[in-house]
UniProtKB/TrEMBL annotation:
It is an enzyme of class 4 (lyase). It catalyses: (4aS,6R)-4a-hydroxy-L-erythro-5,6,7,8-tetrahydrobiopterin = (6R)-L-erythro-6,7-dihydrobiopterin + H2O. Keywords: Lyase. Its EC number is 4.2.1.96. This is Putative pterin-4-alpha-carbinolamine dehydratase.
Length: 92
């Protein structure tokens, strides 16, 4: 099981554009259209399923909010940071 990271490790590992919110990290991705956001969410879901580590995603008007935490560990772990970086790559 992944170990929960301390504050220093989270700050050091948090990819640009992401913020820490308690036991979660979050980023809102912005898109030129609603359907582009839906496409991103679908791609992110595939990455999540492959990693078997799942975000909460809220699809809005030309934006998708992504929130990550490791439920099994009760906090933020390297899995969350790794998935955040992969979602950033997906968004381009
Ligand atoms: C049994 C447990 O739900 C699974 O190991 C996976 C599924 N997806 C998951 N996703 C997230 N974000 N955290 C988890 O701890 C987690 N656990």
């Amino acid at each position: 099981m992944s170990d929960v990271l301390d504050d220093e490790a989270i700050e050091a590992g948090l990819p640009d554009g992401w913020t820490r919110d308690g036991d979660e990290i979050a980023r809102t991705f912005e898109f030129d259209s609603y359907l582009e956001g839906v496409g991103f969410a679908s791609g992110a879901a595939g990455i999540a399923e492959e990693a078997f580590h799942h975000p909460e995603m809220t699809i809005g008007w030309r934006e998708v909010e992504v929130r990550l935490t490791t439920h099994d560990a009760g906090g933020i772990t390297g899995k969350d940071l790794d998935l955040a970086a992969r979602f950033d790559e997906l968004a381009g």
